[in-house]
Amino acid sequence: MRLQDKHWNSVNDKDIFGVNLHQFMELSDQANHLEIAEELGISIGEVKSLKKKINRT
Fold first, then answer.
1. Interatomic CA distance for residues 51 and 54, integer angstroms
2. How far apart are CA 9 and CA 57, in angstroms?
3. What gap in Å lies between CA 23 and CA 36, rounded to an integer?
């Protein structure tokens, strides 16, 4: 039995903010926050929070 649809989708998709993390890692080495946000279709704030999460691991 599923807990919630959002939880189930997050476990199955393996993406945060709908972004492929492998693609994000490749872009983060070469581009700035604005370029990454435009490329992936997310906000600059989401880019910053993703970078923080990656740096913590």
1. 5
2. 22
3. 10
Q: Answer yes or no: are the C-beta atoms of 19 and 42 closer than 8 Å.
A: yes
Q: Residues 41, 32: contact at Cβ < 8 Å?
A: no
CA distance 55 to 57: 6
Query: How many CB atoms are closer than 10 A to CB 32?
Result: 11
Maximum separation of any 2 CA atoms in the chain, in Å = 43
pLDDT tens sequence for the chain (57 residues): 445 665 555 555 555 666 777 788 888 888 999 998 888 888 899 889 988 888 886
Give me 50's structure tokens: 């993703």
Contact 27, 54 (CB under 8 A): no
pTM: 0.61
